[in-house]
Amino acid sequence: SSRVCLCACGLCIVRRMPPKKASSAAVAKAGKAASASKTAAAAADAGGKRAAKEDMEEPAAKRKPKQDAKVTKAAAGAGGAAAAKRKKGNSDQDDSTAAVLSQLSPEVAEVWTAAKKDFDMEDVSKEDMILLSKLIGANVNKKLTTLFLYNDSFSREAGLAVAEAMKTNTTVKVLNLCQSPIGDEVGVALAEALKINTTLDSLLLDGNKLSDKAGVAFAEALKTNSTLDEIDLGDNQLGDRTGQALGEALKTNNTLGRLSLAENKIGDEGGLALAEALKTNRKLVFLELDDNKVGNETGMAMVAALKANKNTLDYLGMRNCGISSKVEALLCKNEYLTVRV
Asked: For the chain, how long is the longest CA-to-CA vector?
């Protein structure tokens, strides 16, 4: 407290003055200062705790880069091993391809090597056909889309090799084996390949000495195959069993657009089954039945089927069949359909 003189002399009795009260503003200011001081102290304390925690964790943090380096090194090693394995696999494949090519006859090897999208060669020997099948099945030529392999002395072994190759080939869209006497065993093998192959678009087997055994097998394959657009089974020995089986297949198949059965032995039983299928099938646009044993019964069934077909079918061939001129006239009345009778 302060001392104050009551007169100017300064000798008078001095009385003690009471302490001066602080203003409200000063009180508030002091409160704020105290609060700030406490906050700073708390912050300092928290900072100290964090620093201590960081000090404790620092060794682990220092060890982490070393661990990451080990992981990275291990990953790099695994990647390098995988790359080496791929390289070795490619090298082995190249060696295998070279070995097969070296065994081909010079003429066939030259045509194969020069081929880009199409391989077209007649009368390839059995040995060369088997070797070519290995290359085809391994997809060596990834641009190959068309195979023409005519051979009037086509062997069983060569045909089975081609069928096996089509199970794994993923590039060929057209396979033409016309006028090659492959027979039923190879035909059935090709049908089995169709259940697996998802690339082939056109299969041409005209004049292959196929009977109902192979015909029924192809019909079964068409129930599951979802890519084939065309199959030519003309000039074979197919009968009613094949016609009936194909009729059943066409009720569910929704990809086949062209079916040739010309020059076979299909009668009215097979013809009626095909006509029945046309009532509901909306994909087939070309059906060839020329030179078969179907008659007026099949002809009239076709007339009825075409009315229900909603003009999906574009071409119907029934030339040299046992139908009358009256039935022919009824068939030809369909203005949306080309009929050959």
From this structure: 160
What are the angstrom distances between the C-alpha of 132 and each of 99, 100, 152, 154, 276? 12, 8, 18, 14, 42
The rounded mean pLDDT for the chain is 82
Residue type, 268: D
Predicted local confidence at residue 70, as pLDDT: 54
Residues 6+ apart with CB under 8 A from 143: 116, 117, 171
Q: What is the pTM of this model?
A: 0.73
- pLDDT digit string, tens, across residues 256-283: 999 999 999 999 999 999 999 999 999 9
